[in-house]
Structure formats: C-alpha cells, structure tokens
Write a structure and sequence with these properties.
The chain is mostly helical. Helix content is 45%, strand content 11%. The strands form 8 sheets. A 3-stranded antiparallel β-sheet has the order 3-4-5. The chain has a 3-stranded antiparallel β-sheet with strand order 8-11-12, with no helix packed on it.
Length: 450
C-alpha cells in the first residue's frame, strides 16, 4: 500500500502537496496556502519510508527536500499544519539519520512561522502570510480567537528544534504559551477551544477532545514523555485536563457505548468525531502513569470499541467523519455532510496503542478489517482516495490522497503488525502527525543535542 501510494504520487504529482489519484495530477488545499507545491506528501511520508526500509524512495525524497523545499509563497499557510507535517516530518527524519539537511530545513520553516507569535500575549495566530510576514486568525473562530488544538500542538516540535539547533527562540515561544495557559482559570475545570490572543481571555465555552481541542491534550502527555518525564508541569496539566474531560464529556449511550461528546453552552452533544477516536490510545498510553492504571486502560478499550463500531456499522467498513450516539442508530452518521471518510488514521492510532500495551489480538484483527476495507473501497490503480459517503457500498470517491495517509494511517498499520522493537515506546514518542521523536536520554537520543 505504501509503495503504491508513494510511487503513484511520484509518477503523477511529484513536488505537489498531494495526489489526485483519479485525475492523476497534483492537489493542494488551503492549509498549504492554496496553489502551492511544497511537497507535503514527500515530507510527511519520509519517516514511514525509512521505518519500512524503502531506502531508494527515501533517498529520492531527501534529494527533493535538499534542492526544492523553499517555502516561498504569497499566500497564507496554516501554522499548525505546517508545524505538524513539515517541521515534525523533517525533525523525525533528522532524529533517524542525523542528516543536517532535515534539521536546517525544519529551522528555515520555523523561522518563517515566527511572525504568528507577534501578539500581545504571545499566543500565536492560526495563519501566516509568508511574503508579508504577518499573521491572522480565522474569522469564524469565536471572534478571531486562536484555537486550542493549534497553538497547543507546537511544543514537541519547537522544544526539540531548540535542542538540536542550539537556538533557544523556538522553545521560548512555546514556553510562553504554557505560561499564558497556566495564568488562566479553567471554566468547570476544562480548557475551552478558543483563546483570544490579544486579551488572553477564553472565547465561547466550547470544549472538545476532537476537532479544535484534540492534540492539545495529547501533547501535554507526550511532551512529558519526550522530556524523559522532566516537564512535570505538562503532566500536571494533562492530569487536570483528563479529569475535566472525564467529568463533563464522557458519556454512555443507551446502547452501552462509551463516548466523548462536545460541550457547548452548558450541555453535551451526543456526537463523536473520527478525530476524537485518537483519545483511546492517549488514555492507554498515559494509564501506567496515572493514579488508576486499570481504569484508564479500560477507558481506552471502551473508546476503541465505540470507534470500531462506527466502522462495522457502515456499509463500507470505514467510519464516518462524525457519528451520533443518540437515537435509534448509534455510532452512525446522520447528516449527509458528516458521512465522508478521508483516509483518516485516528481509529487505527488507538488500535495501535491498545495492541502494543495489551497484546490483545482483536486490535490486529480490527486493523486488518480496515486494511481490507481501504483496499476494497479506497484503492485505485493510481493511489488511494477518500470516500464521500461510507454508508453507500459504492460510494463516490473524493479524488484526494491525503499526505497524512502516508504519514499516519499506513504507519500505524505497519506498527500494529510489527514487533515491539520497531519504534519502542520507551525510546520514541509520536507527534500528532505520527512523526516519531526520540525521548530524551534514551538510546534513540543520539544526534547532537544541546
């Protein structure tokens, strides 16, 4: 699957951000600044190639990065997406190889994102115009607020970048974010999804561990692990955040499915997103460091089960973008605009952690069901495409092979069926785009660090 995805991208869309496998041409979305050619699939897929031993393909990608990756465009780019895919992917390759090309390109891109931090609070803006060196937020985000999952998912990359370059500016930026967050009171013990970067005040009280919130929680735990458990502040924040999530968002459907809803205006909506399905793996990864390991392993298993149900209850065996947990049809999408599947990894991410930590073979079986469904419904002669409606066995395809399909979906599948010595959990921690970073002071922490 990885060979087909990479080779057809190289054949039809080399240098473009993504592949349109049916149209057999390049594709770029707004998060990359519109019609740009930053090679997102190359940078995102490189560490997966390295882990799979596909050296010739890796070397071709390395050569393109060295000679072509410049990040010059008059457009606005997403700070969050550029960070997790590009800076994360490049730093992961540096951690594996020690090749300075990857480190230097990561620093070059981070420098271009620095204008986003020019706010009264230091909370970064969502978008940066690379030509004008100015930032702005999305107009729809609670009156121009910054988004929790975005400004809260920079710490792993920027801490490590300061370590490998010796330049403290990157860590200083994310340290400031942490300081602002710790100066604020939490409504009902929860972190709202929106924060005003000018006033330092929370926006509307909308809380989610899915879209707009998700990776903020993930990074609190993972930064603690990445620093070899030295960043105890991150762990304290994680424990507090999880308690709030459990208290207010965790519910059980009439059919007995545990789920994490969205908190809006004082009530919890019985809807769960595919993005939220990562949380089962997060709870499991943090369980052994909690005050109740069995409780959090059970919670991880419960979320894994609910998300697996969203797959098996669809006609394609693939889960929708959102599904309801109320009404007569639980774990099924109700609205037409929520029935799509864009090759997302989060369900498989949780299956990976659950298998690694329990060795329960059902998680491998569930992952293999997904492999068969992807090959049956998403595979084309020229790559893999998302689906417009998972409830239809002959769903139309969306004609996009997302870069995260190579970075995450295929990587998690590969890891589920690999031995524990492939990316050991005591040596590596994965960012929210599944790019592995070495844990400080572990055997993997082997290239020059400050």
């Amino acid at each position: 699957m990885m060979k087909l995805a990479w080779d057809k991208y190289k054949e039809h869309a080399w240098g473009h951000n993504e592949l349109k496998p049916i149209s057999k041409r390049g594709h770029s979305s707004g998060i990359f600044g519109g019609n740009t050619a930053f090679g997102a699939t190359i940078v995102d897929g490189m560490d997966t190639l390295w882990m799979m031993g596909l050296t010739e393909r890796f070397n071709a990608g390395r050569d393109w990065i060295a000679s072509q990756l410049n990040f010059e465009t008059p457009s606005d780019v997403s700070v969050f997406e550029v960070n997790i895919r590009f800076i994360g992917g490049l730093l992961s390759c540096y951690g594996f190889t020690g090749d300075d090309v990857f480190k230097d390109k990561a620093a070059m891109i981070a420098d271009k994102l620095l204008p986003a931090f020019n706010t009264p609070t230091g909370i970064p803006l969502a978008l940066v115009n690379l030509n004008r060196k100015t930032g702005k937020n999305y107009g729809w985000a609670s009156g121009g607020a910054s988004i929790l999952s975005e400004f809260g998912s920079l710490h792993m990359e920027w801490w490590y970048l300061s370590k490998v370059t010796g330049n403290p500016v990157y860590y200083e930026k994310v340290k400031r974010i942490r300081e602002v967050l710790n100066s604020l009171s939490l409504p009902n013990g929860m972190y709202p999804n929106y924060l005003n970067p000018r006033t330092g005040k929370w926006g509307q009280t909308h809380v989610s561990i899915g879209a707009l919130g998700d990776s903020f929680y993930e990074y609190l735990l993972k930064v603690w692990l990445q620093t070899n458990k030295e960043d105890t502040e991150a762990k304290r924040m994680y424990d507090t955040a999880v308690k709030g999530v459990e208290t207010h968002l965790l519910k059980t459907s009439n059919g007995g499915l545990k789920y994490l809803g969205e908190y809006k205006n004082g009530r919890v909506d019985a809807k769960m997103g595919h993005l939220t399905c990562f949380a089962g793996g997060m709870f499991a990864l943090g369980a052994q460091y909690s005050d109740n390991e069995k409780h959090y392993m059970d919670l991880g298993a419960d979320i894994a089960h609910t998300c697996h149900e969203s797959y098996v209850r669809s006609a394609t065996g693939l889960g929708p973008e959102y599904f309801r947990l109320d009404g007569p049809n639980e774990a099924v999408a109700q609205r037409q605009n929520e029935k799509y599947y864009i090759l997302r990894p989060e369900v498989l991410e949780t299956h990976y952690y659950m298998y690694r930590l329990t060795k329960d073979n059902k998680y491998r079986e569930w992952a293999w069901e997904a492999v068969e469904a992807i090959n049956k419904h998403c595979r084309t002669p020229d790559g893999f495409s998302g689906l417009r409606d998972v409830s239809k066995p002959n769903s139309a395809k969306d004609d996009v092979q997302q870069s995260f399909f190579l970075a995450e979906t295929l990587k998690y599948l590969y890891l589920i069926f690999s031995d524990d010595n492939v990316l050991p959990l005591d040596q590596y921690v994965l960012n929210t785009e599944a790019h592995p970073f070495p844990i400080a002071s572990s055997e993997a922490w082997k290239y020059p660090v400050q």
